[in-house]
Amino acid sequence: MPARALGYSPVMDYRADQLGIQASSGGALLVEGTWYCPALPGPLIGATAGLRAKTISGEPCQQQITARGPYQLHRKDGPDADGYERRSCPAQGARPALMCPLRETSLTPRDGRAKVLQPPEDPPRICRQTAITIAPDIGARYRQDLPYGSPAWHDRYATLRNTIEGLNGYAKDPAHEALAQPARRRVRGIAAQSIFTALLLTAANIRKIRAWRPLTPDDKPPSPGGHDDAGQASATTCPTGNSHPPARAKPDQPQPGKGSATPGRPHHRPPAASHPARTRHQAHARPDCHHGQPYFFLLNLPVVAAWNMFSSGFRSM
Predict the structure, then answer these.
(1) pLDDT (tens digit per residue) in 264-310
(2) In sequence order, what are the residues at sequence separation of 6 or more whose Cβ sits closer than 8 angstroms to the Cβ of residue 279?
(3) Contacts from 14-23 at CB under 8 Å and sequence distance 24+?
(4) Rounded mean pLDDT, 26-43
(5) Interatomic CA distance for residues 301 and 143, integer angstroms
(6) Residue 21 in 3-state DSSP?
(7) Cα–Cα–Cα angle for 17, 20, 23, rounded to 5 degrees
(8) pLDDT tens digits, residue range 95-148?
(9) Which residues pair with 28 in a beta bridge?
(10) CB distance 162 to 132 below 8 Å
(11) Which of the two residues, 260 and 76, has the higher pLDDT score?
């Protein structure tokens, strides 16, 4: 729920004991993260469990997961600001995806759509009403927008999983953050460990940014708020907050301390001093950024404060 409140759409996998029916509301079934009609056949409900138990192979399982589609509830409204949403029966509407004896208008035309062969003997609210309201806390830990096991789910999950695994390996590098080595964080309590973990991940992100910055070109186009081509280029802002516009004067303007141009005579610039060849990192360096010194200060200040807080608490125990 907190992730959804921030605007995220979870894409997750399930353990073997979490497969199948996970929750229900008004007769609707939450099967592996998606709301379905209560007449969803049992073999379709247990498709993924059968694949895990090796009672069916991959292709029949994928066919059964695809066959769940017509039974999926339609989103009629929401979710609203509080997370409540309205869902309707798939056999309703101008173009029903399912044929059901409880919804007579869905029986025509007979065009090969899936048909409910065994409707509930005691129809629940989802079968009697136009729509039902589903609260945000019902099955919140299992719900996801993409149908579990579908091709769209596999594509999205594979991308996100590879990204997370890459970040885990990056932060566990023993030469840098060493997130996998608890001996580097000898402090008790989940609160203290959470603080140090957050700081290590912050350091890993900063290390990524510092590795990326030398690879970016310095001659970027001016920002919308900068000057046009007739004036100077827009200023570059360092992580420290200091702005430093490039020292570049117009040809017809004198520079302080270097004399003034005589009217009618061209202004000759002194020859530039020779500089040794610069490395790639030096060519892209920004002197006013101090090469990570503000990062070092900002990173160590909360570390020292957290250590003093927890160490004083240990001494008082």
Answers:
(1) 444 445 554 444 444 444 444 443 444 444 444 344 444 444 455 54
(2) none
(3) 14/48, 14/142, 14/148, 16/49, 16/52, 18/142, 19/46, 19/48, 19/49, 19/52, 20/45, 20/46, 20/48, 20/49, 21/45, 22/139, 22/142, 23/138, 23/139, 23/142
(4) 96
(5) 40
(6) strand
(7) 95
(8) 899 999 999 999 988 888 999 999 999 999 999 999 999 999 999 999 999 999
(9) 25
(10) no
(11) 76
* HEC-encoded secondary structure of 228-269: CCCCCCCCEECCCCCEECCCCCCCCCCCCCCCCCCCCCCCCC
Q: Which of 79, 56, 225, 68 is nearest to 143 (CA)?
A: 79
For strand 98-99 and strand 114-115, is the pairing parallel, antiparallel, or unpaired? Answer: parallel
Decide if 233 contacts 226 (C-beta within 8 A).
Answer: yes
Cα(18)–Cα(44) distance, integer angstroms:
15
Q: Are 74 and 93 in contact (CB under 8 A)?
A: yes
Write down the mean pLDDT value for the chain.
78
Residue 43 pLDDT exceeds 60? yes
CA 90 – CA 97 distance, rounded (Å): 6
Separation between Cα atoms, residue 11 and residue 19, nearest integer Å: 15
Beta strands in the chain (DSSP E): 21-25, 28-31, 34-36, 74-77, 85-88, 98-99, 114-115, 132-134, 236-237, 243-244
Q: By the 8 A CB rule, do 142 and 136 touch?
A: no
